[in-house]
Amino acid sequence: MKIAVLVFLSLFGVALFGSSEGEKIFDEKCMACHLKTVPTDTSNLVAPAVNGVMRHVKMEYPKKSVGVAFIADYVINPTKEKAICKAQKIQRFGLMPSQKGNITKKELQIVANWLFDNYPTKGFKGRGMGRGARSFK
Fold this sequence. Notes:
It is a single chain. The protein is an all-alpha fold. It is 51% helix and 0% strand. The protein is built from six helices and no strands. The chain is globular and about 35 Å long.
């Protein structure tokens, strides 16, 4: 009986108890700068909200494996040349600081996959096209 309960909880624990591992890592490591919700007041933002970020990631890298690889690379080694957001976002917020030493490669893979699977949220409409000329599907 105990084994059955453990199997059930491991399979359905996220649905029953809320956050996935990726969301928990995001909350601990990323949410200090990147909001998960669409902000009503943008005057206090220190970084773009995750809906907009992921919209641009998916416009530029629609294939999940490529998008996840981009996120994992960019978070550790951000450069202006790699940035996929609009130039005015970098002007407003600056280039994202490297998170090397703040997040492990394993955590980064987990959170990048979670982000790709969950953002942008259904019905999110961003402003503009970012660096690429492709529309989000």
